[in-house]
Specification:
This protein is mostly beta strands. About 10% of the residues lie in helices and about 30% in strands. The protein has three helices and 14 strands. The protein has helices at about 15-35, 90-95, 170-175, and strands spanning about 1-5, 5-10, 60, 70-75, 105, 105-110, 115, 120-140, 155-165, 180-185, 195-200, 210-220, 230, 230-240. The strands form four sheets. Strands 3, 4, 8, 9, 10, 11, 12 and 14 form an eight-stranded antiparallel sheet that branches. β5 and β6 form a beta hairpin.
Length: about 260
Amino acid sequence: MIFKDQQVVSTVKGADPRKLSEMVKKIAAEADSDGLGGFGEASGSGTGWFGTGLPKGYDNVTDQVDVRGLDLLNADSNLGSARTLFDPSEPSTLASSKGKGSARGGEETKDWVESDTDEQLMLFVPFQSTLKVHSLHITSLPPKHTDAEAEDVPMRPKTIQLYSNRAHVLGFEEADDIEATQAVTLQPQDWDTNTGTVKVDLRYVKFQNVSSLVIFVVAGDGDGERVRIDRLRIVGEKGSKRELGKLEKVGDEAGE
């Protein structure tokens, strides 16, 4: 049986290779006609919606995020929480644009995160196992706007700093005094036009034994005062399980 949107759309009875082959070709054609060109539904060992293609040889390891330990600073409390970023469902903004509706339970779904007092966000992400992190896939879907409205509309992230294997979330001033494991500057053309997703490639040798990440959105792309993120996905390889609640820094920095 083939399901779509939780409904049976086709059934093949018995072991009929010809019918199964036809069914696979039909599903592939429907996926191509969705306008994503192969993007938006890929997954690896993780499950759920994925905003862009997986690099060969790596998995979606977002399911290794320890959601109980997430911490997010300077987020608007009227919108989504840190857990929203790892929700396996498709962002409601995309679903609405494809005619699937943007409401759950009859109310508008605000399933994204926005910064509050300024454009900065600080996110602490602990993992259930040590990971080799290849890349981050960030989805940001701010509404379209005119130049006159630019200051009132949230922006996509532009400047991001990453810190690996911290024991807890960093304060904003604290982060300024610590050298980032990697700093990233995103350009407008880096974002996928269909899914609003950017792939942030990491220096793989620096993210080989990662038990946690701190993601610091330093600045947004524009003149606004807020930054918006709808989804976040982690791509890489799973390592050994760690004992939850005992995060330890890994490194050879002076004083450690």
